[in-house]
Amino acid sequence: MSAMSNYLEQKLLDYLFNDQAFTQPQTFVSLYTSNPDEDDTGVEVTGGSYAREEVHENAGASPYWNLAVTEGGGGYLVDNQSDITFTEATASWGVVSHFGIHDAATVGNLLIFGALTSSKTVDSGDTFKFPTGDLDIIFK
Questions:
Q1: Closest by Cα among 128, 6, 134, 3 to 81
Q2: Does any domain span residue 21?
Q3: How do strand 94-102 and strand 2-4 relate by DSSP bridges?
Q4: How do residues 98-122 score in pLDDT, each as one tens digit?
Q5: Pairing of strands 2-4, 110-122
Q6: Number of folded domains in the chain?
Q7: Which of 3, 48, 71, 76 could crosslink 91 through cysteines, CB 3.0-4.6 Å?
């Protein structure tokens, strides 16, 4: 299951209840070796050719997000329409345990985060990938 960051919670509440503008952000998937938590205090992967991967709005350039659908557990689900493939690691990235979705390719704000189903050690020469439909953003 995924969760919203403190930043996104505040922006959405102000947008819904206080008529504060909130522009749809670009989305970039990030990888973490620890839980980023709501305040983005986790350890994001760095070095070894790591870079966040952009995922576009529905029907944009590939990869893009599918439209939200009802999820079997009573919530709503958005997932990736095609593979999200990171650049090949040129050094160890460590044990990747969490993902994040940011509004910028570098720095920016954490929007959504969650734990991977299983952690993955990424060594030099490895390519980390979320296969089509495997990066699930679920709200209940």
A1: 134
A2: no
A3: unpaired
A4: 999 999 999 999 999 999 999 999 9
A5: antiparallel
A6: 1
A7: 48
- Residue 121 has a CB neighbour count (10 Å cut-off) of 10
Range of the domain at 126: 2-16+26-139
Assigned domain for 38 exists: yes
How many helices (H) and strands (E) the chain has is answered by 1, 10
Chain-wide mean pLDDT for the chain? Answer: 96
Which pLDDT value is given to residue 60? 80
In whole angstroms, what is the distance from residue 9 CA to residue 38 CA? 9
Q: Residue 127's pLDDT band (boundaries 50, 70, 90)?
A: very high
Residue tagged 């390519």 (tokens): 127
Could you give the CA distance from residue 85 to residue 29 in angstroms, rounded to a whole number?
10
